[in-house]
Amino acid sequence: MCCWEVYRGGAGSVGDEACNFRVEAGEGREILWRPDIRARLNEWVADFALAGQAALGEPVRASRMVMFRMYYLGLAPYETVRHFLGLSETNWVQWSEEIRRRCGAEMLRRGMFPPRKYFGGGE
């Protein structure tokens, strides 16, 4: 799940420093203000969580939402989450496949996949 890899990379960088701006010299020696890439990464982290909420927010999927929040958002260890939820390895695989399928479809709908498109790198 490449979207989760982007999330994991960005989750640790969320903070006040993401709002910093840097100055670049443009054509005609004008000064352009461009936001630091971390600001866009912060948006990705928030959008990732919102996409999961939209995909799993129905009451019938509450247990999958707990798994999503603990494992995918909270980055808790697999064994800890599996034990907390009382899941067998088989059920873990089934739940994680459902989460990835539903969240993946939601991220695709929101334009988050592929990530390079989200970050302005084109198709």
Provide structural commentary.
- This protein has helices spanning about 1-10, 35-55, 60-75, 80-85, 90-110, 115-120; strands at about 20-25, 30-35.
- It is mainly alpha-helical and about 120 residues long.
- The protein has a two-stranded antiparallel sheet with strand order 1-2.
- Helix 1 (about 1-10) crosses helix 2 (about 35-55), helix 2 runs antiparallel to helix 3 (about 60-75) and helix 3 packs antiparallel against helix 4 (about 80-85).
- The protein is globular and about 40 Å long.
Topology of this structure?
Layout: H1 2-11, E1 21-25, E2 31-35, H2 37-56, H3 62-73, H4 78-85, H5 89-109, H6 115-118
Antiparallel strand pairs: 1-2
N/C terminus separation: 18 Å
Number of helices: 6
* SS-based class: mainly alpha
Q: Tally the beta strands.
A: 2
- Shape annotation: globular
β-sheet strand percentage = 5-15%
User: Which H/E pattern describes the elements?
Assistant: HEEHHHHH
Largest sheet: 2 strands, antiparallel
Using the CA coordinates, give the radius of gyration.
18 Å
Helix content: 55-70%
Q: What ranges have pLDDT less than 50 throughout 5 or more consecutive residues?
A: 15-25
- Please, what is the average pLDDT? 80
Strand order of the largest sheet: 1-2
